[in-house]
Amino acid sequence: MVIYTDSVLIGEKQNGPAYPPQEYPVMTARELEVVTYSVADAVAVFGISRATLYRLRKAGRIKMHRLGGRTLIFKHEMIEAIRGIASDANRSSPSHSR
Description:
The protein is α+β, with helices and mostly antiparallel strands. It contains 3 helices and 5 strands, in the order E-E-E-H-H-E-E-H. It has 2 domains: 32 residues, no CATH class; 60 residues, Orthogonal Bundle (Multidrug-efflux Transporter Regulator, Chain: A, Domain 2).
C-alpha cells in the first residue's frame, strides 16, 4: 500500500520501484507527527475526562472540528488548553509561604 501526504511517499509500491527514488527519505506512518486527536484519543493522551474536554470547548479553550463523521481536536489547541488549566490552578491555589 502506498500513502501520499503532502507529496511525501510512505511505504513502497507493490509493482515496481517506489517513487520518489530511494535517495529521498521515505517516512513510515509512525514517523508522521500527530496534529489532531479524536475525542477518545485526546481523553486518553491528556488524562482528562470527556466531560472536561467538552467543558474546555464550552469555555472556548478548544475547538472541535467535524471531518468525515469524526470529531477532531488540534494538538496545539489541546496543549494550550492544558497549560491554561495548570496556570489557572497555580493562580487560584493559596500560597504556602510562612
